[in-house]
């Protein structure tokens, strides 16, 4: 009993010291913080964080009407700055990126689960720069990403074949394709062509975990880090059991694909995968092995779940906007014809399809609030104080729906990005959907190519309509770090018997390869 009371006394004392330091520090500022709601003693604006299950971008947008385009709250001594204006976000996060490019320590997802080792959650340090350098060298330019065009085209072909055979499970096929592409690029791993794949399942679970854990403030331990020392058996400490489970799942995803590549190399089988190319430089030190594993995992984390969200959003948009689908198909038929599928080299010849890609990115950004930036020094911006260690949260969803930038922002309208009737195209969403400054997504070219191929080739051969009951799907989205459309149904059929044969012919052009899943399974048996 003594130990328990002593423990909680220590927690309480630490809590008061933590808050007191924050209050004293905030009270010493010369300039005011951006405006925001008044907080309570000690806990500050804890009650102003988004409630569970609420779409975070909509919650923070309310602050714009109340306090202006830049606002702030303070929660237990932690300053959080919310930006609801793209120009201000760009000025702070692009032009002053040297000061505002780090990441906060998100206790649950970062330290307790382990995602702090990945590129997305890493602070701005030497390890972060190594991750960026690895990605820039292998996938960071159009020329580098083009080496994977054929691989991406093959996986889109397999996706179309799956949809043709089992259209009702199109969402499962989207997830399989996205996972297969990234696993092949990152590790040279060939996924199961039809049944559930062991690595795709493993990766999907880890992505679900980080989406739940990665929202700042989603767990109380993010706000009060001392709670991480609460014993597992204490009521309310379920977050610790979750963290252990999620950490174990993340360890599997970090180690097993890397071990697969090493196994292949030992067997004399090398390829052009991301990890193989890093291993050419060498992994003789523990740090080199560590960064190789986490660079590869960062590539998967950045590409798989976001691609699933974007492609499923495209299918939803085509159901709701059949006129857009028809116009795109007319463009493809006129430029490409009916004897082959569009590829990356056709992109400049398909301006309307390219505009659909942009509108998918804009209509519902996959990371509506991005990942928060952290300031590494004190700064003054727009007359307001931005303290060192402040969290800066750009409302990317609102940048895409600002009526002063995008006309009728809730409407899916690709023509907003075309020069028609003397109108200037609206702002390109690539300027904000892939992040800012030194935190911009290094795999954005690869991701953009994947989105174009899926959209162009699906439009070329498929009709996408409401389900057999004619039910209009609702435009609903999940909250979380990565946001997806809520599940919906669709009726997907070939555009004609000729288009069906064109899809069937892909099986000869892009034959299925034997899966590598048996190698992973054998390695697991040997390790157990």
From TrEMBL:
Entry keyword annotation includes Ribonucleoprotein: no
Pfam families assigned to the protein according to its UniProt record, in alphabetical order: p450
Keyword hit for Heme: yes
Cofactors: heme
GO MF terms, alphabetically ordered: heme binding; iron ion binding; monooxygenase activity; oxidoreductase activity, acting on paired donors, with incorporation or reduction of molecular oxygen
PROSITE patterns: CYTOCHROME_P450
Residues annotated as binding heme: 441
Cited InterPro entries: Cyt_P450 (IPR001128), Cyt_P450_CS (IPR017972), Cyt_P450_E_grp-I (IPR002401), Cyt_P450_sf (IPR036396), Cytochrome_P450_fung (IPR050364)
UniProtKB keywords: Heme, Iron, Membrane, Metal-binding, Monooxygenase, Oxidoreductase, Transmembrane, Transmembrane helix
Transmembrane segments: 6-24
Superkingdom, natural source: Eukaryota
SUPFAM superfamilies: Cytochrome P450
PANTHER family: P450, PUTATIVE (EUROFUNG)-RELATED, P450, PUTATIVE (EUROFUNG)-RELATED-RELATED
Family the entry assigns: Belongs to the cytochrome P450 family.
Annotated protein name in UniProt: Related to O-methylsterigmatocystin oxidoreductase
Lineage of the species this protein comes from: Eukaryota, Fungi, Dikarya, Ascomycota, Pezizomycotina
